[in-house]
Amino acid sequence: MKLLTPADYIRQPWKNGKGETVELSRADRGGAMLWRLSMATVAEDGPFSLFSGIDRNLTVLDGPGFRLLGDGIDLPCLPLSPVAFAGDVAVRATQTGGQISTDFNVMTARGLLLAQVDVRTVPGNLAAADMTAVFALGQAVVNGQHMTRHDLILTEAACHIAPVDPVLIVQLFLC
Question: Which domains occur in the chain, in start order?
Answer without folding.
Answer: 9-110 (2.60.120.10), 114-174 (2.60.120.1030)
